Amino acid sequence: MRDFILPNDRDMGTPASKSDTMVTLTVDGFEVTVPAGTSVMRASNEAGIAIPKLCATDSIEAFGSCRLCMVEIEGRRGTPASCTTPVSEGMVVQTQSTKLKKLRRGVMELYISDHPLDCLTCAANGDCELQDMAGAVGLRDVRYDAKANHFEPRNTSGEVNPDYIPKDDSNPYFTYDPAKCIACSRCVRACEEVQGTFALTIEGRGWDSRVSAGMAGDDFLSSDCVSCGACVQACPTATLQEKSVIELGTPERSVLTTCAYCGVGCTFKAELQGDELVRMVPYRHGKANRGHSCVKGRFAYGYAHHRDRILNPMIRDSIDQPWREVGWDEALNFAANRLRGLQQKHGRESIGVITSSRCTNEETYLVQKLTRAVFGNNNTDTCARVCHSPTGYGLGQTFGTSAGTQDFDSIEQADVVVVIGANPTDAHPVFGSRLKKRLRAGAKLIVVDPRRTDLVKSNHIRAAHHLALRPGTNVAVVTAMAHVIVTEGLMKEDFIRSRCDWDEFQDYAAFVTDPRHSPETTEALTGVPAEDLRQAARLYATGGNGAIYYGLGVTEHSQGSTTVIGIANLAMLTGNIGREGVGVNPLRGQNNVQGSCDMGSFPHELPGYRHVKLPEVRAIFEDAWGVKIDPEPGLRIPNMLDAAVEGTFKGLYCQGEDILQSDPDTKHVAAGLAAMECVIVHDLFLNETANYAHVFLPGSTFLEKDGTFTNAERRINRVRKVMAPKNGYADWEVTQLLANAMGAEWHYTHPAQIMAEIAATTPSFANVTYDLIDEKGSIQWPCNDAHPEGTATMHVDGFVRGKGRFIVTEYVATDERTGPRFPLLLTTGRILSQYNVGAQTRRTENVIWHDQDLLEIHPHDAEVRGVKDGDWIKLASRSGETTLRAQITDRVSPGVVYTTFHHPDTQANVITTDYSDWATNCPEYKVTAVQVSMSNGPSEWQEDYAEQAKRARRIQPAAE
Amino acid sequence: MPHASLADTQLDRLQEILARHDGLEGPLLPILHAIQTEFGYIPAACIPVIADHLNIGRAEVHGVVSFYHDFRDAPAGRHVVKICRAEACQAVGAKALAEIALAKLGLEWHGTTPNGAVTIKPVYCLGLCACGPAAMVDDKVVGRVDAAKLNRILTEAGA
């Protein structure tokens, strides 16, 4: 699509060359110097001269099919295509001449002869490259009166045109109109090169060449298409067009912002008419996404104006009453009085907050400041507790800082990629596509996952090794890999000697060398064939740049922290740390998990991961805030709930998180919430937690506020306000109002001031300002005097903690075991089209791909239970039971079942237990012993819950 | 997926063909030829199976199959008669000859006679330009085809 709004956002025609050798040439008399390997087209664009083109765009390799971009080059015969001709030293290029003009007009004339001339009523009017090119080449006449064409449903005598194919509008977000297609193949190539799905092809040849999704009989929806939007982005005409543009018209302004879905943190252009969002378009200079997107960020923003959104504050005395809509003052005073009253009655420690990983850094910072400076305690926790808290602990202990070591560009230099407990093609799709691109270019892949994810085998991708371990045995597998590396002498001794603590390495080496850690011994435990594991370990240690990417399949275990430490050990053993192409990279679940952790959301840490017990750290904040800070760490989420059940924890301010659905052991969470006397939910929707709330403060979407998100690469990206908050206030303003209602006297007027306070108090953010982010596009922390422009790769010359620290990783089996009553192991995860608890994506057209949670079960396990595909089944554990439909698949191993947790009516977390990580309390979502049996309908819990939810969501109309 | 599935016996034969081509570089075209030899055409239900086996998209297989006119998506007649329509043969009367053939059979190009005896297809140059108009009957090329010769060919083929 044409880029018509932002400066410096032109389509350069072909991808940039990464060569270090520079070449100088002349284009139309202007000298230009570009890297060797650059196309003449791109070089010309660098010189500010655009060459007409149709089949070229800079997200995909040159193709040379449209013949519109031809140029004349001194000393060469004919008119070569500028897109496929690389530059050479001293080349003299002419982009315009009488001959070229004539040829280009001829080409355009042929294109237009088989294209409808309905520009005025076309959805791409004003945003069509074909239209632009017709203008650019001066097309004034079309001499061909083509009898046969592809665009008229019937000819003039009313006969059906056999070459006409009607529009395919099966995809909820875009249409495919073959009548407008010029067969440039940009969509097909984008699907292959950028997204890596290979859902599209050109069928037939010559006159019969048509874009086809899937095979004969498929439409876009039934094909392999994952609706990432890359084809729509690449299409130069209205052939692939967003339905929102068809409906609303072309946008007239554009604002750069950051996607609020997963931890990849893609940069988007929000394109608008007035304050109405027309479409989200991935930004080609976005450093995390490099112009790519997924179905969520690109299309699933409809929740922002969904009718379920609550726009007025509401209160109630108790949760059995209906909600009462009130003004902001009344709601905030009600909340403030209740909280103060609870503190007077039950003590300073009786209330707390939960910060949100979906809100901005500035908002999160204010929420933890609220509890530390206004409530006077450290009772703050965040949803990272239930996802990546073990990452914080494990990487902090071994490397000295809690963050991924690389940027996403680093994947382009990796030779061996190890993916452990992560499913990036579903949960981090844009990174998944970048990884697949690297794999197609020859990098090797090792997948450690109980389930056969798409990375193990999908179009043009095949993992070299899939270690399908039994859930809960990560530590044993990682330690066995270390055993192979150490006993076979594959470690990088010089790296270990110079960069790590040698004595600790000796202890560690002695530990892993023990034969009980050999793959042959652990095979019985893990189910991973020893030879396979040995080969994988050898590949990682000796295959060149080895990069580890991991997800919640690592952390959400009773030994989550131990596995993180084990992964760090592997990277140190093999010297795979401190340069491009290697590293240890947690794939963060939510958009701002990294940021919410950085901002001091944990009860024991002030912003920048500094313990509250340290007086010198407290002093910084005490000076800045003018208050005394409690030196005792506060309560974690599970501790808050336990204390609530015991009656000592009474009030909670929960911003942008739905702990009832997302936290384990739903019944316990419900009991905890029900025991509190003031639960304040600050959210877009009446989420599940709000069923137990007394105050509801309406939240704002990422489109309605300024701020920053920090993604999995430590990249601080700007979130920019594209429209006024529909609820009246941005979330940081609401927190400030609540604080002030409790007497805080905060006076922030813009999030930039909050960032200034963060920078002034937190060393790794010392030089971060909005101006610098605007200038650089984004900044990776640490950003301070030592790294004034931020840090792409960490631990380059030394670890943050000094010497890297090897820590022994003893495998201790989880207490959650299978037995006669619960013989199967349940593990949970997510799916491409839905996000987390689904509060956003369930309120978009994405439900077409996933309208309910399904239980994946192996054919053997299904057969012995008489379960057929699509049957209603009951899923029971020691904690509870629920019902859902079965999907029979050999993606899971026998003995393992899998489901997602996107739908509240399934409530997968009724099943999960309260076992958690030994170091951080991160819940063990990934291992639950369960039984599966046939069922007729919803479980008793589901019925009770549905009834309670319905009652709790009643809203009394406001008094006249 | 709205695709027909293969009968078990067909699937076994397909799997045998796929196994036979394992390890071959650029295996898709040889596999497609083998399938057409085995089944007489490329059943649509084979496409996802081939795609899965070669680890490529079914769209890609469809793209290749539909590119080559010799790959059929339905069984052909017992004999396939191809008449050259390239320039050299047209210059010596191939166009009229083709019209006679189509009229006699009562078919459009690519059609098959109701009794399943003959499928008629156009072809663009058989390399027999010196002896045009040229035709091809199953695997055998025939030169200097005139109306009488054509009649004889079609009658022998059982049309």
From TrEMBL, chain A:
Keyword vocabulary terms for this entry: 2Fe-2S, 4Fe-4S, Iron, Iron-sulfur, Metal-binding, Oxidoreductase, Repeat
InterPro entries, alphabetically? Answer: 2Fe-2S_ferredoxin-like_sf, 2Fe-2S_ferredoxin-type, 4Fe4S_Fe-S-bd, 4Fe4S_Fe_S_CS, Asp_de-COase-like_dom_sf, Formate_Dh-H_N, Formate_DH_asu, MoPterin_dinucl-bd_dom
Residue limits of the 2Fe-2S ferredoxin-type domain? 21-99
Q: Which residues form the 4Fe-4S Mo/W bis-MGD-type domain?
A: 252-308
Q: Highest taxon of the source?
A: Bacteria
Q: What is its EC number?
A: 1.2.1.2
Q: Where is the 4Fe-4S His(Cys)3-ligated-type domain?
A: 99-138
Q: What is this protein called?
A: Putative formate dehydrogenase
Q: Which organism is it from?
A: Thalassovita gelatinovora
Taxonomic lineage of the native organism? Bacteria, Pseudomonadati, Pseudomonadota, Alphaproteobacteria, Rhodobacterales
From TrEMBL, chain B:
Q: Does the keyword Iron apply?
A: yes
Tell me the cofactors it needs. Answer: [2Fe-2S] cluster
Ligand binding ([2Fe-2S] cluster): C84, C89, C125, C129
Q: Which Pfam families match?
A: 2Fe-2S_thioredx (PF01257)
Q: Which CDD domains match?
A: TRX_Fd_NuoE_FDH_gamma
Keyword vocabulary terms for this entry: 2Fe-2S, Iron, Iron-sulfur, Metal-binding, Oxidoreductase
Q: How is the cofactor bound?
A: Binds 1 [2Fe-2S] cluster.
Q: Does the keyword Iron apply?
A: yes
Name of the protein in question: NADP-reducing hydrogenase subunit HndA
The family annotation for this protein states: Belongs to the complex I 24 kDa subunit family.
Broad EC category: oxidoreductase
Q: Where is the signal peptide?
A: none
Task: Write down the EC number.
Answer: 1.12.1.3
Instruction: Cite the GO molecular-function annotations of the record.
Output: 2 iron, 2 sulfur cluster binding; hydrogen dehydrogenase (NADP+) activity; metal ion binding
